[in-house]
Amino acid sequence: MVIGSMIIGEAVFETGAADKIGRSIIKIVGYDEKKFIVACILLTAILSALLSNTAVVAMMLPVVAAVSKVSKGKIKKKNLYMAIGFAANVGGGMTLVGSTPNVVGQGMLIESGIEGMKFFDLTLGSIPRLIFMVIFYITIGVRLQNKIFNFEEIERRIDSNNENTNKSTTNIKMILSVVIMILMIVGFISEIWTVGTVAMVAGIFCIVTGCISLKAVFERIDWNTIWILAGSFGFAAGLSESGAGELIANRIISMLGADVSLYKLLIIFTIISVILSNIMSSTASSAMICPIAISMCQVLNLPAKPVIMAIVWGLNLAFLTPVATPPVTMTLQAGYRFLDYTKIGSILMIGSLIITILIYPLVFSL
Known about the structure:
Blueprint: H1 2-14, H2 17-29, H3 33-50, H4 53-70, H5 81-92, H6 100-111, H7 123-148, H8 160-168, H9 171-190, H10 195-208, H11 214-220, H12 223-242, H13 244-256, H14 262-277, H15 282-300, H16 304-315, H17 326-329, H18 338-364
Helix pairs in contact: 1-4, 1-9, 1-10, 2-4, 3-4, 3-5, 3-7, 4-5, 6-12, 6-15, 6-16, 7-18, 9-10, 12-15, 13-15, 14-15, 14-16, 14-18, 15-16
């Protein structure tokens, strides 16, 4: 599923569809930077819900760089890159395929014999966070960025090889890549096959039709993510089979009390997930937390699916640092300093965390 989504995202960029997207945004909002930021946030979040959020950021950054270059200083990369990375995190938490922690959580549920999440189960809890992000940037976010990002705009040529490839690519391949992406989304929704099968078939079609070469696929896929994902299932199985997961769960339960409610458990695991997601890989964090959460739910006789969903939402709030998730790490090329993420991201993270916790009773009918 992850590989297939990454291939689609790269193909959309390779064929020049990304460039068309940038030009379309300009036609709608013009060179008003605030409107352009909001448009990019919404587009990035929506695409990240349907494709790998890492691939979406890889596609959006060159789009913004190209627009910034022709805007003659009206639109600055440093005011957009970070927002795009954050939007990819929020959008990635909207569906099963957006980010790797979602896939890990889903895999853990299925491996434990528990019914997995539906494709759009995560969406309801993510929409309020996206709305909050848009409101933040419309009200104080842009002003904060202008005050904090007091460094010179970095002019850097972005992947000239891709640029040349885009110019020589036919419109047919561009249309094909978009059509394949749309068909993949339809496949996700209709559930004719598993999500993984649909994504891989779509990825194979992109290669077969020449939208992207096999060489480019092997060069651009984030293989570290794939290996972590594969290893996480073995880690989870080891915790389960050895009894270590149950042992850890029982220790935590003894600290919390055996009468802990589902709502309290949701809050605890959300906060733990948010903290971990900002200091270590969100994928590795998901692999570590999910088996323990499932064991706790089994001991307490509580449904595990809502808790895993809470963990996924928490892990997609990595706004404080650029080190935990690739979509945010990729934005460093704008020239941000480490604390720039903390200054902007802290408001977004705290606000999003509060909203997430407050909507649990509505989402899970508590």
